[in-house]
């Protein structure tokens, strides 16, 4: 039987190039080799203050973007996390075996909590446990994510060790050990405004990121304004030139060229020559995604059906695992 993969994206605003190159493009490339599950993690989206008026709409938009980017229903199941209630339930069970200090150590929690100041919810602290539940419910072998999720994956692995140790046996583990799958290139796309900071949905400046649905004129403007340096001749890997490294890496990935080919092509270039070339590359890489997205969102009934089918298939797997965990923990089965 094929190994299983599971991953997800939060429906908080628009998807950017980091989400695409770090995660979704990889899913598209590997989906046919696995039994693939991709969810829209809407329960995670409420761990920071959110607007109920746009949550449902954003959730649909992300599901449509999965399809528009090339996730195929022939190989993959697409579903909404909150439609499969086992996610919340397993998260609770895992909460009760996860030590508090494991969560307090999480870098993303510390960063996000610092940004928010007061009013940090218990949900934000608990975010990685819910993420562990997402993964473990599907007995996922591999979890394709960007570099920033590595620590959360390690936590999920620690939870597996702990639950198996306490409630399972060597020949009968309660949960399966997942492995992170992080690409060599694209796993850490940096901000357009600062090449030392990760491209992020939560950056207050729109100019810091390229969104998958940005129209060509917006892309042009963002690239025109993006941070560069006064040096002529473009190169990879110079620690003094993080923006140069980031933009060249994006160019290589979006034009499907090797780093070597791009290094040669751009060795003598100035920014005035590179930026229009890069703009054209980004516009043509995103154009087919945007066209497909517009087609998909025009047909609401189709997307509804995709998510309904996804829910049925995902719930079947998730409920079986949840029962296994509840049995191992000693609950009285429903009578
Ligand atoms: P989210 O929505 O923040 O990010 C979705 C995916 O995009 C990747 N990513 C990046 N990759 C490269 N460069 C960047 N600048 C960049 N920014 C984001 C993230 O690593 C991620 O793969 N916690 C997850 C969502 C989640 C999940 C799961 C993932 C919830 N449950 C279960 C896998 C399995 C997250 O960060 O979403």
Task: Please characterize this protein's 3D structure.
The protein is mainly alpha-helical. Helices cover 55% and strands 7% of the residues. The strands form two sheets. Strands 1-2-3 form a three-stranded parallel sheet. The longest helix is centred in the last third of the chain and has 30 residues. The radius of gyration is 21 Å and the shape is globular. The mean pLDDT is 96. Tryptophanyl-5'AMP binds next to strand 1, helix 1 and helix 7. The site of tryptophanyl-5'AMP (TYM) has 25 residues, from strand 1, helix 1 and helix 7.
What's the alpha carbon Rg, rounded to whole Å?
21 Å
Q: Let me know the largest β-sheet.
A: 3 strands, parallel
The ordered string of helix (H) and strand (E) elements is: EHEHHEHHHHEHEHHHHH
Helix content: 40-55%
**Molecules bound to protein:** tryptophanyl-5'AMP
**Which percent band covers the strand fraction?**
5-15%
Mean pLDDT: 96
What is the end-to-end distance?
34 Å
Unreliable segments (pLDDT under 50, ≥5 consecutive)? none
> Given the structure, what is the number of helices?
13
DSSP summary, beta strand count: 5
Shape: globular
Strand order of the largest sheet: 1-2-3
Structural class comes to: mainly alpha
Concise structural overview:
With 335 residues, the protein is mostly helical. It has helices at residues 17-30, 42-45, 52-69, 86-95, 100-104, 107-116, 122-136, 150-167, 216-225, 242-254, 259-266, 271-298, 300-329, and strands at residues 4-9, 35-40, 76-80, 142-144, 179-181. The mean pLDDT is 96.
């Amino acid at each position: 039987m094929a190994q299983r993969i599971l991953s997800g994206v939060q429906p908080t605003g628009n998807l950017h190039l980091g989400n695409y190159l770090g995660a979704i493009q990889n899913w598209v490339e590997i989906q046919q080799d696995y039994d693939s599950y991709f969810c829209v993690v809407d329960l995670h989206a409420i761990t920071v203050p959110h607007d109920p008026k746009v949550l449902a709409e954003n959730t649909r938009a992300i599901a449509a973007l999965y399809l528009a980017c090339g996730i195929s229903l022939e190989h993959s199941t697409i579903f909404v996390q909150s439609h499969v209630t086992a996610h919340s339930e397993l998260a609770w069970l895992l909460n009760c075996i996860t030590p508090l200090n494991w969560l307090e150590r999480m870098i993303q929690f510390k960063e996000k909590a610092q940004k928010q100041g007061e009013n940090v919810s218990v949900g934000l602290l608990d975010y990685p446990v819910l993420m562990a539940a997402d993964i473990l419910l599907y007995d996922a072998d591999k979890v394709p994510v960007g570099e920033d999720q590595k620590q959360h994956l390690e936590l999920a692995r620690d939870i597996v060790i702990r639950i198996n140790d306490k409630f399972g046996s060597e020949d009968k583990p309660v949960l399966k050990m997942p492995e992170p799958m992080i690409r060599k290139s694209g796993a850490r796309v940096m901000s357009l405004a600062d090449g030392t900071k990760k491209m992020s949905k939560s950056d207050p400046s729109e100019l810091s990121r390229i969104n998958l649905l940005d129209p060509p004129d917006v892309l042009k403007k963002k690239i025109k304004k993006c941070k560069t340096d006064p040096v002529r001749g473009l190169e990879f890997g110079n620690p003094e030139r993080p923006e140069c490294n980031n933009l060249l890496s994006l160019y290589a990935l979006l034009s499907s060229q090797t780093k070597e080919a791009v290094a040669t092509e751009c060795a003598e270039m100035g920014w005035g020559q590179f930026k229009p070339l890069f703009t054209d590359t980004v516009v043509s890489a995103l154009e087919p995604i945007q066209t497909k997205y517009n087609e998909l969102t025009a047909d609401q009934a189709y997307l509804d059906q995709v998510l309904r089918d996804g829910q049925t298939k995902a719930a079947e797997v998730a409920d079986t695992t949840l029962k296994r965990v509840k049995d191992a923990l000693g609950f009285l089965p429903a009578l």
